[in-house]
Amino acid sequence: MFKPVKTKKIYEEVVEQIKKLIIDGKLQPGDKLMSERELAETLGVSRASVREAFSALEIMGIITIHPGEGSFVRQVSYEGMLEPLSFLLQIDIDNVMQLLEVRKILEVEIAALAAVRATEEDVEDIRRALNKMVDEVNSGEVGDVADAEFHFAVVKAAHNPILVTLINTISDLMAKTVRFSRRRIFLVENMPTILYDSHCLIFQAIVDKKSQQAGRLMHEHLTLVEKVMLQIKKGGITELTKFEEASLDHDIKIDCGFPS
Q: Shortest CA distance to 118 belongs to which of 208, 229, 252?
């Protein structure tokens, strides 16, 4: 099951090997791990390295350690597996644009899946987020909370729990690392209306079960957001150019009911 460790960061390699065994199903929730001494001998490493690996795995929520009884595999959550990624991105702000790129790659396909799999309940959840967006703007807020709820509702409509976890992780990181820039997007002139209209087009494609169109519209929506965030990062933006506004002008025309 295990293989000799050949790395300077020995405890990290031990962690990765145990995580892989869990992912591959060779270790199941409730299984007892080898003792520190047994595992150290099997891997050809020191007991201190194994102890450090066990400690890291316990912090991640992957194993639980019972003194005098041993170490056991917990019911592993994907959140625990993603914790190192979360830590990396929180301490390296330069990765924000790459994070946006990952979000775009995932959410384009998610929108396409939602157009195929969305139930009536899913559609109502997305519609509710759109209505909340209007209410937030009418009450003087920027609408970013409802925006997040819209995207989460679309992700849920894809009916893939792994994608839900991935997007939740990315959204949490976005909230922590670029909260100020993200809120500034909604302060750009006409941006609340443009984003609302963009969301409505995605919603309509999902309702109409037009998978390719939903993916294309999500790509255009997130590309616009990415571009504006980059401009804000580089020094600010006050209004969209006519070209950027025109990029959202599609053949589909629907009345989103945005307050004038």
A: 208
Asked whether the beta carbons of 45 and 5 are under 8 A apart, the reply is yes
For the chain, the distance separating the N- and C-terminal CA atoms, rounded to the nearest angstrom, is 65
DSSP assignments along the chain, one per residue: ------SSSHHHHHHHHHHHHHHTTSS-TTPBPPPHHHHHHHHT--HHHHHHHHHHHHHTTSEEEETTTEEEE----HHHHHHHHHHHHHH-GGGHHHHHHHHHHHHHHHHHHHHHH--HHHHHHHHHHHHHHHHHHHTT--SHHHHHHHHHHHHHHT--HHHHHHHHHHHHHHHHHSHHHHHHHTTSBTHHHHHHHHHHHHHHHHHTT-HHHHHHHHHHHHHHHHHHHHHHHHT--SB--HHHHHTT--S---------
pLDDT value of position 88: 47
- Whether 258 has a pLDDT exceeding 50, the answer reads no
pLDDT, tens digit (0-9, with 9 covering 90-100), for 130-164: 998 888 877 877 677 788 889 989 999 999 988 88
Report yes or no on whether pTM surpasses 0.70.
no
For the chain, the structural domain boundaries read 10-76, 81-246
Q: Which amino acid is at 192?
A: P
Instruction: Domain 81-246: give its CATH architecture.
Output: Up-down Bundle (1.20)
pLDDT for residue 246: 40
pLDDT band at 110 (very low <50, low <70, confident <90, very high): very high
Which range has the worst mean pLDDT, 16-25, 119-128, 214-223, 245-254?
A: 245-254
Which of 8-22, 199-213, 222-236: highest mean pLDDT?
199-213
Q: Which CATH class is domain 10-76?
A: mainly alpha
